[in-house]
Amino acid sequence: MSFILGITGGIATGKSTVVDLFKKYNFPVIDADIVAREIVEPGKPALKKIVSNFGEDILLTDGSLNRRRLGQIIFAEPKKRQRLDQLLAPFLQDAIISQIDTATNDSSLVIADIPLLFEAGYEKVVDQVAVVYIPENLQVERLMKRENLTEKEARQKIASQFSIEKKKSRADIIFDNQKEYSSICQKVTSWLKANKFL
C-alpha cells in the first residue's frame, strides 16, 4: 500500500520548493492546479457544466475555456466564484483521487500537492498532511519581494486564504521553511529517511 502525503501551505511559504524536492527523489506528484486545468479541456464534462451555467461567451473560438473572461466574471462577483468552485469541486475531486489511485501502483509514496487542501476537505483522501510553514510576517515580506507588492496588497492576498497558523495547527507534519534552501532540503530528506522511503 502506498502512503499518500498531502502537501499544502500558504502563498509564498515555499510549497513548490518542497514539492520539487520530492520530485527530485522521483516520487509521483499529483498537482491539483494541473488537474484543475485538465478537467476543463474541450469536450470534458466539467467544461460543459461551466458553459451551461455561465454561457457560451466564456469559450474561445476553438471551443476552449476563455480563462480571462471567466476570471472577469467571477472576480467581479464573489457569489459567482463560489458557484464555480461548487460546480468544479466534484470533477476535481474525482480526477485527483483517480490520479492518486493510478500513482499508488508504482510507488511507496505519493505526493498530493493541493493548495486548498483543508479548505476543500482533502485531508480525508490522504494519509497525512504536511504544511510548509513560515510565520505570516515573513510570508508578507517574501510576497512583497516576489510580486513587487505593497505591504497592504500582500496582506490582502494572504488574508484571502486560510491563515498559515490555522493550517499549521491542523498539520501532521510541519516543514518549517524560514531558513535557507539547504535547511529545507535536509528536513525533507530526514523525513523520507525516518519513514523509510529512502
UniProtKB/TrEMBL annotation:
EC number: 2.7.1.24
Catalytic reaction list: 3'-dephospho-CoA + ATP = ADP + CoA + H(+)
Pathway annotation from the record: Cofactor biosynthesis; coenzyme A biosynthesis; CoA from (R)-pantothenate: step 5/5
Signal peptide: none
Pfam annotation, one family: CoaE
Alphabetical UniProt keywords: ATP-binding, Coenzyme A biosynthesis, Cytoplasm, Kinase, Nucleotide-binding, Transferase
GO terms of biological process kind: coenzyme A biosynthetic process
Repressor found in the keyword field: no
Residues that bind ATP: A12, T13, G14, K15, S16, T17
A cellular component term, taken from the record's GO annotations: cytoplasm
Entry-linked InterPro entries: Depp_CoAkinase, P-loop_NTPase
Major site of localization recorded for this protein: cytoplasm
GO molecular function: ATP binding; dephospho-CoA kinase activity
Enzyme class: transferase
Compartments where located: Cytoplasm
Function: Catalyzes the phosphorylation of the 3'-hydroxyl group of dephosphocoenzyme A to form coenzyme A.
Similarity comment text for this entry: Belongs to the CoaE family.
Listed NCBIfam families: dephospho-CoA kinase (TIGR00152)
This protein's name: Dephospho-CoA kinase
